[in-house]
Amino acid sequence: MSYRLGIDVGGTMTDAVILDTADNVVSKVKVPNSSDIVSGIQTAITHVLQTSGLPPQRISLAMLGTTQVTNAIIERRGLSRVLAMRIGAPATTGVKPLASWPDDLATWGRAHSVILRGGHEFDGRLIAPLDELAVAEACRKVRGTVDAVAVTGVFSPVSAQHEERAAAIIQEELGDVPTSLSHQIGSIGLLERENATILNAMVIQVAKRVVQTFSAAIRNSGISAALFLAQNDGTLMELDYAQQYPILTVASGPTNSMRGAAYLTGLTDAVVIDIGGTSTDVGILVRGFPRESAVAVEVGDVRTNFRMPDLVSLGLGGGSIVRETARGITIGPDSVGYKIITEGQVFGGHTLTFTDVAVSQGRGPLGDPGVLTLDEAFAQQAYQIAVNRIVDAIAQIKTNALPIPLIAVGGGSFTLPDALPEASHIVRPLHYEVANAIGAAMAQVSGRVDKIYNMEGRKRDEVLAEAEAAARAEAEAAGAAPDSLVLVDVEELPLSYLPGNATRIRLTVAGTLRAWEELKAES
Amino acid sequence: MSWYLTKDDLIPIALGAAVLGTGGGGDPYIGRLLAEEAIAEKDLLVMDVDEVADSEWVIPIAAMGAPTVLLEKIPAGPEPIIAFQALEKELGIRAQAVCAMEAGGVNSMVPLATAAHLNLPVVDADGMGRAFPEVYMETFHIYGLSGTPACVVNEWGDVVTFRAHTNQTLEHYARAVTIRMGGHAFLSHFAMQGTDLKRTAVRGTLGFAKRLGEAVLRVEKTHRDPIAALLKAARTPPYGGADIIFVGKIVDVQRRTSGGFARGRVLIDGTDDYFTRRMRIEFQNENLVAVMDERPVVTVPDLITVLDRENGTPITTEYLHYGQRVTVLAIAAPPIMKSPEALLVWGPEAFGYSYPYLEPHFIRANNPEIEGR
Questions:
Q1: Is the pLDDT of residue B145 over 90?
Q2: Which ipTM did the prediction report?
């Protein structure tokens, strides 16, 4: 029998789980983060192996979900200096690259941004031939002063030709300086895609370190497994791919817990609520995957458009501090975090938290309800306020009025009542507290297409089949077993004022990791 | 009264213009970035229609084409300036001000960037009072002006000049050229003198957009109800009053393209005061009619805007989806947009509906200020 290891590095805790080929949870641990992420990961691995009693050699696959890349962007730490190259002149020169970025982040790229001739029209015609000499000259100018290059061509999701040609020239001129191409990162919407691509280039070095420390922690534990990183649509990337497209790991945390919730319950269509110590994320599973957000998503105050789960986030968690103010009762957004186990009143502490309020209303059992000296009316009212916020968030994320189950995960989910309006019933799976690490260990791979198609004179089915074939090819390239691939999402958006009933098609397929299928077959 | 528009006014104007976009008109975001760059240096003078001398020339400027293309193939910047100057040259005139064609969506921003670059004032007026799908759907056309000569310009500075026997023909030709230019281009047309401007323009639409946006942004800071603030601002002249016509949750959206237009309808099931009721809003790029329990309640050219119920942000037809909690705001168009001649061009029947324009008397009734005028 072979096993896989899932690790999730969160804001305050690192969780680890080991699953067997039948997806049973063999062992699980939660350890508080130390200032040193590597030792946190290593401690988690050591403990989870010990609990399982398995020798390290039995772990065949290891998956990591991490917020380190996100944190580097938010904290502007350890970023790379980027040559931001846009291909599209004379169009697009009205808004320069990084124009609307916060200064402290733009400083990593603004000095080296260029707009060159080239790019395509919506129907694949050229705006201009690619100015190859200008690509080479831009490279020569920045040689030795940049660590990465970000290339964004107009309508590259329709034709990637110019981005790919530019990448070849960049390699000739700058050697193996990492180069990020926008068509592999985002969809239609030049500025948002360009922003995501530049951010990606900026975190390339950070990602390299994450991958190195993860690999080192794994090797040091005696494990010789194939390694993967979780990405924000709930699927995996091989480490090589992850080092090229680290921006895709942003927001993998909430996605992992939603995928974990799907796995633990067997439900494919449900609302998932993940209540942690400080915050709550509410998302929705559609055919087993988190629904993606349709609007621009900001990362570190920069507008982007890459795949992110649609989430409603509340500043409400088990450790949220409860206060009575002139304006009424407030709960959060500040929290005692992981100190809940010493500071919460049910644990003998002196801070009134949402956990204390929930325990007083019969949730739990947890700590010692006997020590609580809460006024009953106050506690009832506070609890109701929190529940109302949660109900509103569920209503907001739902796709229709039909009753839908609610899966409750995360350490703080015990605070929920037995029934809620908007939910047909509440499912509380076993291992709910490590759902995110379980989600990271889901051996899923996806492929995706987001392009404008000309529908005129063509059958709709035929166009959709073409799009699906392209998405399948991408998933297989990422390591999916072809037979396992299924269509998880398709969206058609007709575009106004364009000939040929131009339609934007977004389509995602997902399946199982080929390596995992093979291991399962062997055992 | 003329006033100065600063860089800080662009965010509220863009937000107000999205309300006036009535579900279409294109996202003002890119337009705002272009205008920001132009206005950063120097504040922009905004003139009232009455302050334009009878003999002075103004030129309405607009972007035309697919909003999706604008988001991907961002303009070079000088296109609208070239369009403005090409039309001046064609007519052998010097224009003294820039005017808007369309108050809703991205076209609220285009004249601002143009005027700032040309160092000219912008007139607080436009030809639509909202967003409409075709370029002849303008009061300038309705009240007898010729749209041509007109110039269409792309990112290369290529200029195509039109002379057409009708304004509908101009729309037809300009649309074809825009597609050859990559699906998006800039247009100068309806060059006119002060006398004609005073007779035909929808007045005060820029200031109105600014007030709508400011109302929402002001309450955002104090966490009060943005929709109540928006409604209060929307009830001010030059528009004919406003009301919330529905509150609910989207239960179905259908879209299709035909003839280059994004057509469709959204169904909203009522909540709160509208519990058990259902609203259907039909759109062709922009929202056209609102039908409650199978009875039309607001019709084009009055404005129907779907707002996010929580924060009051307008939702374009492209971004409507199942499950959104929404509030529907209706604003009565100014009287100049509702004459019999105007309704022939943009009343419900002009969009293929079997029923005529419906005067939303409930909107007038709640607006004594309008009633007394």
A1: yes
A2: 0.88
